[in-house]
Fold this protein.
Amino acid sequence: MSSPKLIKSIALGLSLSLAGIALAPMAAAAGAEPAFALKSNSNGKIRAGAKAFHKGDFSKAAFFQKAALKSGLSKSRKAAAYTNLCAAEGALGNLEAATIACASALELRPDAWQAANNSGVVEWLAGDHEAAAATFASAAELAGEKGAIARTNAVMAGASQLASAN
C-alpha cells in the first residue's frame, strides 16, 4: 500500500510536469527568470533587509542580513538571515557567497523551503538549470501550500527545460 506522502509527491511531480508542458512556449518566449523567496520574522535587522531587498537595494539588504548575523540570533532567526543573505548576494551576482549563505541556512533548518528555493535560483543563475529544476521541485514539496514562489519556479524551470530540449 502506498503512503499518503508518496502519493502527494507523485501528484506534485505530475502537476509540475503537466504545467511545465503547458507553459513551455511561454517560458521560453518570455526568457523567464526564477524569483527569490525571503523569510521575514520579528528581528528588526532581518525585516529591514527584507524591505531593502523588495525595494531593489540588494547591497543594503545584504548589509542588514550580515548585521543581524553578527548579533545573538536564535537558530530560526539565523536561518532566516542566511536565507535572505543568499537572496541578496545572488541578486548582486555574488553566486559563491550566495551558495554559502543558502547552505548555512539549510544546515540550520533543512526544512526551510525559502532557502531551498533560493539555492535553486543561485543554481539557475550559475547556468545549472537541470539542478535548479530539481531543487525547485524539492523546495515546492517542502513548502506545501505556502510556497507559491517555489511552485512557480519549479514550473518555469520545467518549462524551460522542455523548451530547450526541443
Residues 4-165 form a domain with the Serine Threonine Protein Phosphatase 5, Tetratricopeptide repeat fold (CATH 1.25.40.10).
